[in-house]
């Protein structure tokens, strides 16, 4: 798959997953929503949403990402692009 920042390994994909989760958390906080409210509205236990946001669920499905992003009225592509950008910035910071 071509792109400005292609993923090359399973490690990179798992790392991106964590950044996507953090970006979803950031979006929730920006909208001043509680985990409890979002989880209730989406039919998830609050602990499940907490585990997603903190990157503790390595197997979060695309459908779950889409449900959460849709709830926040944000395109999942925007979430992924922000996550990739932050991941790339953090990698540059570590390289210095």
TrEMBL record:
InterPro entries registered for this protein in UniProt: Cro/C1-type_HTH (IPR001387), Lambda_DNA-bd_dom_sf (IPR010982)
Record domain HTH cro/C1-type: where: 24-79
Name the UniProt record assigns to this protein: XRE family transcriptional regulator
CDD domains found in the cross-reference section: HTH_XRE
GO-annotated molecular function: DNA binding
Top-rank taxon, per record: Bacteria
Coiled coil: none
């Amino acid at each position: 798959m071509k792109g400005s920042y292609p993923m090359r390994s399973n490690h990179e994909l798992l790392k991106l997953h964590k950044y996507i989760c953090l970006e979803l958390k950031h979006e929730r906080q920006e909208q001043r929503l509680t985990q409890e409210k979002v989880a209730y509205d989406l039919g998830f236990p609050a602990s499940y949403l907490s585990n997603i946001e903190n990157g503790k669920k390595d197997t979060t499905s695309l459908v779950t990402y889409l449900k959460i992003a849709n709830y926040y009225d944000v395109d999942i592509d925007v979430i992924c692009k922000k996550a990739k950008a932050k991941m790339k910035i953090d990698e540059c910071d570590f390289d210095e």
